[in-house]
From TrEMBL:
Highest taxon above the source species: Eukaryota
Presence of keyword Signal: yes
The protein's name in its UniProt record: Desiccation-related protein
Keywords from the UniProt entry: Signal
């Protein structure tokens, strides 16, 4: 079975890299991450703002780049909380409280019913998101964690809108590994298109280095999720009369509709394990397009969905202030 091949392959990658210190560090428990601070050793005194070593060395960034690096903190909070809660049954308040900066705990986070393989994958994704938040918050001032809604009913609403129906029983992202993969399909890909969209606006070498590094790992997460869904693309999402492929197509179409961009998203169907344009270059989205999607409202000034009170940072606050005028 292809699933076990992918599993073996991932295991081989893990084993081969176990003596490489960054991955070994990534495999520490979240509690260890917190206690040890998860610092890579610096590559030595830096004479310019360009980090030339193989590891990212945070240097505070100033100017317009700050807005472009603060915006994704919204998405990294969402990803960190979603993966942490689902894998461990708790979130940043316990795993890395110093990253919360006084923001309220998410609504509706819970441990997901995952098979042992997917549990290992999601644990690793959770560590990655904690690392991403740490890197961003050492580079730009950031803001407190926004209110997030991770409740099953919020995911169920998105799925109902995507399928243009009311599923019975309501879709529960936390009920099974397949449901969880479909829910995860909604998350890192949006961040990925945001990093592609941010890159052309950046000036500072540190900001470019960070965005490229974050984009690389977010793309890896998206690829793992899509490969696992691809393997099951013809299966029904029990007990509903829709296949995995149909689910992903409808979710991608919904994002295209909400974002008002034309195509920047593609379901998991034959020949489309990964999404890309006619050159197989990743699609880009602007902050406004991303907000329309994660608010589930199609309107960057109208919060809701995963962010009941809206996102933070200058771009998101700008759109929210438009609504109040
Ligand atoms: C480089 O970083 C230093 C301090 O970290 C800062 O004062 C300086 O403005 C930065 N230079 C650029 C080009 O961003
Ligand atoms: C959604 O379903 C309703 C009736 O069930 C139908 O009238 C409508 O055209 C559908 N919308 C889309 C976009 O398919
Ligand atoms: C977007 O939402 C804001 C705030 O709710 C509202 O004032 C505005 O009219 C909406 N725009 C569109 C195009 O619906």
């Amino acid at each position: 079975m292809a699933m076990s091949k992918l599993y073996l392959c991932l295991q081989a990658v893990l084993l081969l890299s176990l003596d490489a210190s960054p991955l070994a560090q990534a495999l520490l428990t979240v509690r260890d991450l917190h206690h040890h601070g998860y610092h890579h050793s610096p590559t030595g005194p830096s004479t310019s703002n360009l980090s030339t070593g193989p590891s990212y060395t945070p240097v505070p960034v100033k100017g317009k780049d700050v807005d472009w690096l603060e915006f994704p903190i919204n998405l990294e909070y969402l990803e960190a909380e979603f993966f942490l809660w689902s894998a461990f049954g708790y979130g940043l308040d316990k795993a890395a409280p110093e990253l919360v900066s006084g923001g309220p705990p998410p609504i509706g986070g819970q441990k997901a019913n995952l098979d042992p393989f997917l549990l290992e994958v999601i644990k690793e994704f959770a560590y990655q998101e904690v690392g991403h938040l740490r890197a961003l918050k050492k580079t730009v001032p950031g803001f407190p964690r926004p209110q997030l809604d991770l409740s099953a009913s919020n995911f169920a609403k998105v799925v109902n809108v995507a399928l243009n129906t009311t599923l019975s029983p309501p879709f529960n992202p936390y009920a099974s590994s397949l449901n969880y993969l479909l829910a995860s399909y909604l998350i890192p890909y949006v961040g990925l298109t945001g990093y592609v969209g941010a890159n052309p606006h950046l000036r500072n070498p540190t900001a470019k280095r960070l965005v490229a590094g974050l984009l690389g790992v977010e793309s890896g997460q998206d690829a793992v999720i899509r490969a696992l869904l691809f393997e099951q693309k013809g299966d029904l999402v029990v007990p509903y009369p829709y296949t995995v492929s149909e689910f992903t197509l409808r979710l991608s179409n919904l994002r295209n509709t909400l974002g008002h961009t034309g195509i920047a998203d593609e379901g998991v169907i034959p020949r489309y394990i990964l999404a890309g344009d006619r050159y197989f270059v990743a699609y880009a989205r602007t902050p406004a397009q991303i907000l329309r999607i994660v608010y589930s409202s199609g309107n960057e000034s109208s919060p809701g969905g995963f962010y009941p009170h809206g996102a933070d940072g200058r771009f998101a606050r700008h759109y929210l202030s438009k609504a109040r005028n």
